[in-house]
Amino acid sequence: MRNQPTLTFLTTLLLAPLAAFAQAATPHVNLIADPGFEEQPVAGRSGWVGTQNAGQAVFERSAERPHSGQRAARMVCRNGDSYARWVYRTPDLFASVKRGDRVKLSFWYRAPAALGDALVMISQNEKPGYVQYPLKQLKATGDAWVRYESVFTVTVNPTGGGEVQLRGTTDRTGDQVVFFDDVSLEVAGHEEPQRDGVVLGNAALGLTGVYHPEGSVSFDGKPVQEWEFMATGTGVTGLDEATNRPCGTPV
Ligand SMILES: [Ca+2]
Asked: Where do the DSSP E strands lie in 27-71?
């Protein structure tokens, strides 16, 4: 007689590695749920919204020559509009994204002026609660659809939420009628994150240097450019540029 629970358990054991493999083999999942602006906005549901810091830019889902489907996102900006942007924001946008992931934002756009750019914002626990990745500027494309693509590495531990901003204007303001369509935000790779900081210098002298994962070094709380370094038998010593003495020592 077959033992059904045992059989189910064995089947689960056999399939688990296959499922893990399938998950690893499909990294290019679009995190944007309405990439082509085809859905009708539903009140109270997260998704694309138009907003700006100043001015009266006009946002609509337009049927005027979309790149795909029936609609594209249209934004009409006038001189004085600043940071006019289509924003895609959900509380779980980065739920599957980890520190060290290489994230690719791509979309199609057409614009008469080189005023805008794109930005990705990721929520994190540390103050100020988010980190922003300003990406490439838009260029003037005339009437032609042009593909935009930019890749960045996540340097924080995402807490799930965040947003994508497609900006028709920034602090550069002026007349602009820009269209966006077919937006994709996906994890395109991973780099093992570097450690948060490595202490350099001589602890006995109260000297501490910190290596930051984004590539900068601070020493005694100042950027490394203000210090000159020399190697010693016991490590690295920072010299004060003005006095040429080990920093922290009395002059
Ligand atoms: Ca579309």
From this structure: 48-51, 58-62
Does the structure show a pLDDT above 90 at 174? Answer: yes
- Residues lying with their CB under 5 A of ligand 1, a single-atom ion: 36, 66, 68-69, 181
* Topology of the domain comprising 48-190: Jelly Rolls (2.60.120)
180 Cα: distance to centroid of ligand 1 (angstroms): 8
> Are 215 and 221 within 8 A, CB to CB?
no
38 alpha carbon – ligand 1 mean position (Å): 5
* Global pTM exceeds 0.85: no
Q: From the CB of residue 227, how many other CB atoms can be counted at a distance below 10 Å?
A: 19
How far, in Å, CA of 172 to CA of 164, rounded?
A: 19
Residue 105 pairs with which residues in a beta bridge? 150, 185
Counts for the chain of helices (H) and strands (E), in that order: 1, 16
The confidence score (pLDDT) of residue 235 equals 53
DSSP 54: B
- Give distance in angstroms: CA of 221 to centre of ligand 1: 49
The residue ranges of every structural domain in the chain are 48-190, 199-240
Cα–Cα distance, 182 to 35 (Å, whole number): 5
Of 228, 225, 232, residue with least CA distance to 245: 228
